[in-house]
């Protein structure tokens, strides 16, 4: 088992290759389905009110994760469909692409889910999502005034996030 | 020792002293230290996951090794060891030979019931709860009380899978107050029983099922 040394700080961000507004929107959920953050850069079409939109997104991810884990041909141990799985257990999907957008997803074992919706030609954003998780730890988790499980209102986090996402190609 | 670590040790000592002055009762102080540790643990887990980049552990044995080798190393700069596994792998001991929290510390006679490092048990409990494991963490050996090392017993009580927040997906608006949202179930039961030649009128009341059980008790065939 490879152990990471304690001196390694959060992974450095992938080199930005293009500037501009390539991201559409971003969601951050915690393990109970509370939407901690929703950011929008470029979303021309709104069909649902924010509460319904968040519930829909969370429900979609929950179902997709469950489905992909149950369909896994390499894993011998599979529960029955519908049985809740522990966060991070089994295989997890990390993105899906349609002709108009690409949705990238990351879930940590602590249940924090980060979703980024970008234009369809975006490459693999797994490293970027890990970097965003690092930003979350630095600006939100370590902030003593922030109470876990409540929506994020940190200016510093929003600025750093905005800056970083705009630099992703 | 790095200057950073010394500051932490001295700060922790000051906190414990202040708690003893404020609360006076040693058991209360133990509880407070555990609670402080719990509040730290629920946040620390995210930092641990982000910095170490590890994915979910396969079983509790791997979890314990992760805490002892990676976790303690990352945050306290010391490595602990894991031993005394029980038969079903749900209970183990984490042993710390070297404990940076207790440098410069001697317990006076007035504090004999104090678990000085109780914050650590809270941290482990809080962090594991955030990865869906409910545990019980207690001290079995404490060098400040005369033993030769620091030993924590970590017992896995249960794994709590995340709940699908079904109830939050449906909220009845005020215009629908007379609605029985799950009324389809009463129709299902009625339809199924009708096929077995039992005609009922069913509405969404628990009484229905009790009535069925009373009027048609199970009879053995012989």
Short synopsis of the structure:
The complex is a heterodimer of chains A (169) and B (222). Chain A has 169 residues and is an alpha+beta fold.
Task: Describe this entry's structure for a reader.
The complex is a heterodimer of chains A (169) and B (222). Chain A is an alpha+beta fold and 169 residues long. Chain A has one domain: Beta-Lactamase (2-Layer Sandwich). Chain A has 3 helices and 5 strands, in the order ββαβββαα. The longest helix of chain A has 21 residues, at 50-70. Chain A is globular. A 4-stranded antiparallel beta sheet of chain B has the order 1-2-4-3, covered by helices on one side. The model of chain B has no long low-confidence stretch (mean pLDDT 83). In chain B, a hairpin with an 8-residue loop joins strand 3 (133-141) and strand 4 (150-159). Chain B has helices spanning 3-23, 26-52, 60-76, 118-130, 183-195, 206-215, and strands at residues 81-83, 91-96, 133-141, 150-159. The longest helix of chain B is centred in the N-terminal third of the chain and has 27 residues, at 26-52. Chain B is 45% helix and 13% strand. Chain B is built from 6 helices and 4 strands. Chain B folds into 2 domains: 3-159, Trafficking protein particle complex subunit 3 (Muramoyl-pentapeptide Carboxypeptidase, domain 2), CATH 3.30.1380.20; 174-215, no CATH class. The A-B interface holds A 1, 3-6, 8-11, 31-33, 55, 58-59, 62, 83-89, 108-112, 130, 133-134, 136-137, 141-142, 148 and B 42-43, 45-47, 49-57, 65, 69-70, 73-75, 77, 130-132, 159, 161-165, 168-169.
